[in-house]
Amino acid sequence: MPRRKVKETNTFSDFRDFWRHYLDQHQHPINQNLHIVGTLCGSVCLFIAIMVSIKWLLAAIFLGYGFAWLGHFLFEKNKPLTIRYPVWSILADHLLVAQKVLRASTFDRLSSSPQTRPKQFSKPR
Known about the structure:
Helix content: 55-70%
Strand content: under 5%
Radius of gyration: 15 Å
Number of helices: 4
Shape: globular
Number of strands: 0
Largest sheet: none
């Protein structure tokens, strides 16, 4: 499926628009898996930072963003929107993890119509 071109100046009116763009920018399975690993590692390190030592905060940032950015630069060949949309990016990463763990398109109502949805996020026929 050809990717939609999104200008750098594009802004999103709500999270639904951002989620559609997120799915479009995360089609490569290795990129998705790197995001899942990074999100889970970053979340665990953040929890440890809160409970044990603030020193773990650096590990949370490094692991969380490191895996995700590797996926974007090496496999998707696109730029992450993390800097411009940090909260929505983290929320979308966690939604991706939940979607993969549940092995269901639980979040279809946030996605685009079935005709434009990426193949791996489509409902089985």
